[in-house]
Every structure is written in structure tokens, then in C-alpha cells.
Amino acid sequence: MTNENAAILIIGDEILKGRVQDCNSVYLTKQLFEMGIKTERIVTVPDRVEVIGESVRGLAKQFDYVITTGGVGPTHDDVTFSGIASGMERHLTADVRMVEYLVKAGLDRTQARESRMANIPTGAEVVKEDIATGKYVWNVCM
Q: CA-CA distance, 124 to 142, in Å (whole number)?
């Protein structure tokens, strides 16, 4: 095991209201452990920009890695990227790869550029990861 540590930030009102059960932190903790990274904190916060921002900023000062999960999607309460950007003192900018993905999913180019899902914190990188089901997930890394 390395000396590296991590915190997992779970974002979502649906978790805090008991409507959805968090499974991501269990999976992530196991994956991090296999990489030699010790998970030292798991925090759940609501879909509120200021709370997400404060949490990301505070955790980033204490841990080598901060992994966020939940909260991102085409819904009215999707403020995850705004909160992360605020916490890291970054602006949001449309990511070309995410815009293209959203266009392929059926949005026109203007809708895609304006979508909350396409606007990520400046300096972040989008990584497309294939998963065993033949589908894929998009990870935004800073």
C-alpha cells in the first residue's frame, strides 16, 4: 500500500432522502484499495453549488485524491460541475468531446454546447472508459 489517500464525495439529494442507495462508494473504495490508495473519508452532500464547492475545496486540501460521484445528468438540479468549478476556483467551459457525444445522442449543436453535461471545469479532462457491458462512462478528471 502506498501512502496516498483519497476521499469520496457523493453528491445527490436522492441519496440523502433515501430514494437511491449509494453503491458507488463501495465499488470505488475496493478499486482504490487494489491500487494501494487508502480511502479515508466518504462524504455525502446535497445538490447545492455552495455545499459541493466547500466540500471539494476542503477535501482537496486534505487528500491526495478526491473522487466525486452522482449528481451529473440532464436534470434540472444538475449543479455538480458548477459546484466543483466553484470549489476549485475554475470557470465552466464547453468540452468538445462532450458536445459531440450529446449531438450524437440527439441534441442540436447549440443545445449540446449549453447543456450542463457538456460544461466542465476549465482544465479538466474528459476520459471515455469502456465498461464490461459494452457501454461506456465519461469521467471528468482534474
A: 4
Query: What gap in Å lies between CA 8 and CA 28, rounded to an integer?
Result: 8
SS (H, E, C) 31-62: HHHHCCCEEEEEEEECCCHHHHHHHHHHHHHH
Cα(142)–Cα(83) distance, integer angstroms: 14
Does 134 have pLDDT greater than 60? no
Angle between helices 80-87 and 49-62 (to 10 degrees): 50
Measured distance CA(80)–CA(12) in Å, rounded? 9
101 grid coordinates: 457525444
Beta bridge partners of 6: 39, 65
* pTM for the predicted model, two decimal places: 0.85
Cα(57)–Cα(83) distance, integer angstroms: 10
CB 139 within 8 A of CB 126: yes
**Most trustworthy range by pLDDT among 12-16, 41-45, 66-70, 120-124:** 41-45
The one-letter amino acid code at 95 reads D
